[in-house]
Amino acid sequence: MAAHVGASRTPQEVMEHYVSMYIHGNLGKACIPDTIPNRVTDHTCPSGGPLSPSLTTPLPPLDISVAEQQQLGYMPLRDDYEIEYDQDAETLISGLSVNYDDDDVEIELKRAHVDMYVRKLKERQRRKNIARDYNLVPAFLGKDKKEKEKTLRRKITKEEKELRLKLRPLYQFMSCKEFDDLFENMHKEKMLRAKIRELQRYRRNGITKMEESAEYEAARHKRERRKENKNLASSKRGKEDGKDSEFAAIENLPGFELLSDREKVLCSSLNLSPARYVTVKTIIIKDHLQKRQGIPSKSRLPSYLDKVLKKRILNFLTESGWISRDAS
Q1: Distance CA 94, CA 76 (A)
Q2: Cβ-contact 59, 132 below 8 angstroms
Q3: Looking at the DSSP assignment, which residues form a beta bridge with residue 75?
Q4: pLDDT at 58
Q5: What is the pLDDT of residues 259-279, one digit of tens each?
Q6: pLDDT of 278-299, one tens digit each?
Q7: Cβ atoms within 10 A of the Cβ of 157, count?
Q8: N or C: which end of the chain has fewer CB within 10 A?
Q9: Which residues are within 8 A (CB) of 181 and not within 5 positions of it... i.e. 6 or more apart?
Q10: Roughly how many angstroms between the first and final C-alpha of the chain, as a whole number?
Q11: DSSP line for 164-205
């Protein structure tokens, strides 16, 4: 129409004139009824739904090099791949033909095959849309790392990366922006919960103003630092006294400083206090010296010394050279 009118009118001006004069003008009001009978109602899903017609709308070709196209088996003019999802889907209709002598059952069966094929095409296109939305092709080619570093608003922790892996099944039900918003909201919820717990801790400690919290935190950090320094000093002292640390059960008992290293090991193994060991040792050596001088003596060992302990101590004193073997 614009070409017929001439160069004085643009196509946009011609369309506006036609709509205003013939559709919304008096002529349109007189000819076009308010209610149109037998109007066709669109019962399909909205755009982007699981079975919406928009799913079969082709996407613009991928902007990749020829070598990358060959690597992926991608055909940009058709926006197809050499190997598609459900590669054998076309076998449902490849052998179909409409014959004049088909009965109703055969016609319905062929229609069912066509419907199955259309659903497979929609599922194939849906997967392409997901791959395009989440940039799976650049990720496969290793191109998205630099772009992610540029667009990354904050550093992702290890726990959040693990959470993303757990939430991967949601990718097919949400767009990339919706998923990012969901993940950011989950992170915000986590931070708010931590802040609530911190404020509740302040309230339990009698703090009702944020100005007081700074002083409280400074005092708390000072206490924790003092405690850490104390633990560090005790651990260093334990390392320096490593030989005595194994005698922790008897090192604070009286008479411990009188024992040799071997005697400390003996008392620790027998669970015998140093004072009792020194008493038994003194009695045994005194009796031994009296026997060697020919003075008769009767053993006056304490009642807490049983046969097993006496034998262990005698063997130890003999091996150490305190008494002779014939006396033991």
Answers
A1: 24
A2: yes
A3: 80
A4: 64
A5: 888 888 888 888 888 888 888
A6: 888 888 888 888 887 777 766 6
A7: 10
A8: N
A9: none
A10: 132
A11: HHHTGGGGGGS-HHHHHHHHHHHHHHHHHHHHHHHHHHHHHT
